[in-house]
Write a structure and sequence with these properties.
It is built from 27 helices and nine strands. The protein is 59% helix and 8% strand. The strands form two sheets. It has a five-stranded mixed beta sheet with strand order 5-8-9-7-6. It has a four-stranded parallel beta sheet with strand order 2-1-3-4.
Length: 678
């Protein structure tokens, strides 16, 4: 009973930590993309600040006209950028726009003389971080409610008017409901922070901040509290010490220097490079595994942080704007001239204190090679995702990363990638690992850094790699028959055998499906009539042509596109987007198949999913490769994905392709598709 209770308690603790981590990550995702705007405001303030009263502070190039932009930037621009970013995270651009409109209410209520008289206003970052995502969530729920209820042709009208009405209503609500709460919170928090500063107790904040860094809880503190309060303080005083509490690289740098001197094995060998990345690159997560190897080192980082803050208080140091990442370069760029000395002594003192304490701990610890790889793995487990930087410390190079999630990425995320994902999914399933690995397809602009392996067309590799730095990246020249698929399956097999030391059990469902396809057996029970009917609603007899007349790639796209338009489910403008898509990356899939489709931006031209099938007995030159089958796709939601999976399975089987070549009627084509268990 006690064991069960302890396990349950541990599970709750881990769950709570993960929830706080996710919350902190979300806050960081609103602030980090806009750090450049904060820096721009800080630089303009430092250089061009102008005041009628010479004692009120002047920049070296004080300019009355440029100074006029400083107030509106921090009062309106920065909060609106934060609100838009937060709203976009919840409900794409539509959510961002409504979030920005709604946030104007709380901005005005906390800055306009109509509300606050002659009192100084506060930059409404906290209000923006609440109102932006909240407004987007409300719009998202409205859109979900209206889905399927809007008559074709009225989508744009309803979307635009609903955005305006909801945005206006929420703006008024934030003005009279949220603003008073924000006033109260900012006043209480400001008084509390000022009390800590006046009582010289601010160094105690390191007791919370330094362990929070290692546990990846720092974003909730830094971007949720310190950045808004620090900006408010910087606006009034020209700088804020709050920007230095989390960004000071000294505590971590001291630990890494101690490993260089007294460390052992791989930890000592990798510490110099880690110290350089940490101090100049500002990527603090690089030192977290070193602390996790010996949790006693938290004492070094805490006392290092406390000593740094204490010295910064003595010298009245501070920064004009947030330093993110926490690089020494950013610290000096954001420090006003009168704070340079204090900033320097702050990080140097923190480094020395942390170095001394960490050295004592390391020297007194047991001999043996420090297990940096295990510590890195523990760190990634706590973070909830892989670290592309820290992963290099453990030699994380593809084979050492257990593949559990795979994503196929293409421009629109509905055609090429869906086919590729289906082909690889079937190969993995036939190998017996179908229940262990997920294979999905996504548009590049919706990718997140949450996958172990990313597959993309070689022409899209750079775009797809940017949002997924933690994933291993594989490129293919066609999605249907790339030899890289077999390499991926073999890698998975090696990983599983190396982990379990036994042959994985075959997936009965996978074996049945594979056997049925190869032998041309009758459909399995999963191929219900209703499912086939659903497929035929997307691909009908009238959309199948067995004697295509096109003689080139472009005319073949026109022919397949016209069949889509003739169904009444697709606007004529969609054909132009099919050509645009082809101009960016070829839709030739291999095995004589091309699947032209529109760009992601053209989805508004699709009323419901539709497909067309054209067979060219003589073949069509598709960028130097012969295409005998051209399948046009217009996908709305995921309705067409089941049929795409069937097509992928057919074209990966030579016997099925031969049946398509021999078919004499459109009905035979539909029958072939219906016999495949996707």
């Amino acid at each position: 009973m006690s064991t069960t209770s302890t396990a349950s308690s541990e599970k709750k603790k881990v769950g709570a930590r993960v929830r706080v981590q996710k919350f902190g990550t979300f806050l960081s995702s609103m602030i980090m993309p806009n750090i450049g705007a904060f820096i721009a405001w800080g630089l303009l303030t430092a250089l061009f600040l102008w005041s009628e009263d010479p004692q009120g502070g002047q920049g070296p190039f004080a300019n009355e006209y440029i100074n006029a932009a400083l107030g509106p930037m921090v009062t309106y621009l920065l909060p609106i950028l934060i609100a838009y970013t937060g709203g976009k995270l919840i409900h794409d651009v539509r959510g961002g726009v409504v979030g920005a409109v709604a946030t104007m209410g709380v901005i005005l209520a906390t800055s306009s003389p109509v509300f606050i008289g002659d009192s100084p206003g506060s930059p409404m970052f906290l209000g923006a971080m609440i109102m932006g995502p909240l407004s987007a969530w409300i719009v998202k729920k409205f859109d979900q409610f209206m889905e399927g209820r809007i008559k074709p042709g009225f989508e744009m009208l309803v979307n635009n008017f609903s955005s305006g009405i909801i945005g206006a209503g929420l703006s008024i609500a934030s003005m009279f409901w949220l603003a008073p709460i924000m006033h109260l919170l900012m006043n209480v928090a400001g008084v509390a922070v000022q009390w800590l500063i006046d009582m010289r107790l601010l160094p105690l904040a390191s007791i919370l901040i330094e362990p929070a860094k290692v546990l990846f809880l720092n974003n909730a503190i830094n971007h949720g509290i310190l950045t808004p309060l620090g900006t408010d303080q910087a606006l009034q005083q020209g700088k804020s010490i709050l920007f230095l509490l989390e960004s000071n690289p000294g505590p971590g740098l001291g630990v890494l220097l101690a490993y260089i001197i007294f460390g052992r094995g791989s930890a000592r060998a990798s510490a110099p490079a880690a110290a350089l990345i940490h101090a100049l690159g500002g990527i603090h997560e690089i030192y977290f595994p070193y602390v996790l190897m010996k949790p006693q080192l938290l004492i070094a980082t805490i006392f290092g942080g406390m000593s740094g803050v204490f010295v910064e208080l003595l010298f009245n140091a501070g920064l004009r704007s947030p330093a993110a990442p926490g690089s020494l370069i950013f610290l000096y760029v954001n420090a006003p001239p009168n704070a340079m000395l204090g900033v320097t002594f702050g990080w140097v003192t923190a480094t020395i204190v942390s170095l001394v304490i960490a050295s004592v701990i390391l020297k007194a610890s047991k001999q043996g090679d420090d297990d940096l790889a295990k510590a890195t793995s523990d760190m990634e487990r706590m973070k909830g995702k892989k670290s592309s930087v820290a992963g290099t410390l453990a030699g994380d190079q593809g084979k050492n990363t257990t593949i559990r999630s795979i994503v196929f990425a293409c421009d629109a995320g509905m055609g090429s990638s869906a086919m590729g994902a289906s082909v690889l999914r079937n190969k993995i399933k036939d190998a017996g690992y179908g229940n262990d690995i997920t294979v999905v397809n996504k548009a590049i602009n919706s990718l997140q850094d949450e996958f172990d392996l990313l597959v993309s067309h070689e022409d899209l590799a750079d775009r797809a790699a940017a949002p997924t730095p933690s994933a291993a990246h594989v490129t293919v020249d066609n999605f249907m028959s790339s030899p890289r698929y077999d390499e991926i399956v073999e890698l998975i097999r090696e990983q599983r055998e190396g982990t379990t030391n036994e042959e994985p059990a075959a997936d009965p469902a996978g074996s049945t499906a594979a056997g049925a396809t190869a032998s041309g057996a009758t459909p399995t029970p999963t191929d219900t009539p209703s499912q086939e009917g659903s497929d035929q609603e997307i691909l009908g007899v009238s959309s199948i042509v067995l004697g295509g007349t096109a003689t080139s790639r472009d005319t073949a796209i026109d022919e397949a596109g016209k069949l889509l338009v003739d169904t009444g489910k697709v606007d004529p403008s969609y054909i132009d987007s099919m050509h645009e898509r082809e101009g960016s990356v070829s839709t030739f899939m291999g095995n004589g198949l091309a699947i032209p489709h529109g760009t992601n931006e053209a989805k508004s031209a699709i009323h419901s999913s539709a497909m067309s099938f054209v067979r060219y007995d003589g073949g069509v030159d598709w960028n130097g490769k012969p295409a005998r089958f051209v399948i046009g796709i217009a996908g709305a939601g995921g309705e067409h994905l089941n049929l795409l999976q069937k097509i992928a399975k057919i074209f990966s089987n030579k016997e099925s392709v031969a049946q398509l070549e021999a078919a004499q009627t459109p009905e035979e084509i539909l029958e072939i598709f219906g016999k495949v268990n996707a």
